[in-house]
Write a structure and sequence with these properties.
Helix content: 25-40%
Strand order of the largest sheet: 6-5-14-15-16-13-18-17
Number of domains: 2
Number of helices: 13
Distance between the termini: 34 Å
Number of strands: 22
CATH superfamily of the largest domain: FAD/NAD(P)-binding domain
CATH topology of the largest domain: FAD/NAD(P)-binding domain
Radius of gyration: 21 Å
Structural class: alpha+beta
């Protein structure tokens, strides 16, 4: 039985711990914060993410707490026109063998955390920020910021977009600033007028250089609002409070209905969107990257968490019953299996800006194109993402 160190106790790190434990090894999760918790608001889980959660043994628990969506609805944010919807009901669920759901990030993290706590093969160590590593002979040691060294047979860097493990492994500098600022707010659903609730829909309002997306979270008790402005920002910021006047100014080009939704928001906070280019190197002997540390992506494909969980399941399948001596080769195989798919999604998420932010004639052409697509064509467009599943029996995955 190998001891696998995991830097980072977020969604990707905990999913990896469950996968490692399920493969017959012991996982040690090193979390920088004083306690294991998740920040943020809503998160969308397509069928591929739920299939990964099934493989980890927690899919039913997540489905029970999630809100099951009936459509992905695309609106012209200026005119208020309903352009098209990808229906997420019977035809979609039959094809992809799962619903499409939304949850609060903390709800998903809590399910994973409880499963980890219930495992005798997982150690959860808080207050342990990893800032580097070194490999000696057939062991790897994670160096913590307080000077301690934690030693195991492998180290998985699941420590986010500014990963210390990646910094040591690749040394490729800071993430790429996208030039887009996101404004987020969560409001009680009972404060939302009934005609704006869209209680089973993920709704996008697309406008010139900006868009708004919203959907219910926390069992439908709250509405998650996320508005993106292509403002050309060059400074990365995280969770900076802003007032309503700033939001009104940034999204003044949107039409009446979208602005009504924005007016509901309070306690707005902003983030600068950052990502990285796909890279070919994820491993260094007994060390590998996972999730945002390996392939950080813009959230517009709603696949960040799903891809981290797919990573975890793939890794667990490869490590199943493996001896310590085989770990470097298996980590290299994990990276080979996962690189192309995650790179494609990274680039697709960037490219999707062309769908959300055109103006004038370009926006009208987009509406015409989208409204002409039948349901099967819309499903086909997302099938390579949503229909993918990976399991121990099929390590390379399959698309439904």
């Amino acid at each position: 039985m190998a001891v696998v160190l995991i830097a980072g106790g977020g969604i990707g790190g905990l999913a990896t711990a469950l996968a490692v434990a399920g493969s017959g090894h012991h996982a040690v999760v090193l979390e920088r914060a004083d306690r294991f918790a998740e920040i943020g608001a809503g998160i969308q889980l397509a069928p591929n993410g739920l299939h990964a959660l099934d493989a980890l043994g927690v899919g039913d628990a997540v489905r029970a707490t999630a809100v099951h969506m009936d459509e992905l609805r695309f609106m012209d944010g200026v005119t208020g026109e309903h352009v098209t919807s990808l229906e997420l009901t019977k035809g979609y669920r039959d094809r992809f063998a799962s619903p499409y759901v939304v949850v609060h990030r903390a709800e998903l993290h809590s399910v994973l955390l409880e499963a980890c706590r219930s495992s005798g093969s997982i150690s959860l160590v808080s207050g342990s920020a990893v800032d580097g590593y070194r490999t000696v002979d057939h062991r790897v040691s994670a160096r913590l910021t307080d000077g301690r060294m934690m030693t195991g047979d492998a180290l998985i860097g699941a420590d986010g977009i500014r990963s210390a493990v990646r910094r040591r492994l690749l040394g490729d500098g800071e993430p790429r600033v996208s030039g887009i600022t996101v404004y987020r707010a969560v409001i009680p659903m009972n404060e939302v007028p009934e005609d704006l609730r869209f209680e089973r829909s993920v709704v996008w309002w697309a406008g010139p250089g900006c868009h708004l997306v919203h959907y219910p979270i926390a069992g439908g008790s709250h509405l998650n609002l996320a508005a993106s402005s292509d403002d050309g920002t060059t400074e990365p910021v995280t969770s900076v409070p802003v007032g309503r006047d700033r939001v009104r100014h940034e999204f003044g080009a949107l039409g009446r209905t979208a602005l009504r939704l924005l007016e509901l928001g309070r306690d707005w906070k902003t983030w600068t969107l950052v990502d990285r280019d796909p890279v070919g190197t994820w491993t260094d002997g007994r060390v590998a990257l996972l999730g945002d540390a390996a392939h950080p992506m813009l959230h517009y494909a709603a696949q960040g968490a799903c891809q981290a969980m797919e990573d975890a399941v793939t890794l667990g399948a490869l490590l199943d019953g493996a001896g310590e001596a085989s770990l470097p080769g298996l980590l290299a195989e994990y990276a080979r299996v996962r690189r192309d798919r995650t790179a494609r999604i990274q680039l697709a998420a960037r490219d999707s800006i062309r769908l959300w932010h055109p103006a004038g004639a370009a926006a009208r052409d987009r509406n015409t194109m989208l409204s002409a697509l039948p349901q099967r064509a819309l499903q086909d467009h997302v099938a390579w993402m949503h229909g993918f599943r990976v399991s121990g029996a099929d390590r390379a995955g399959a698309t439904l």
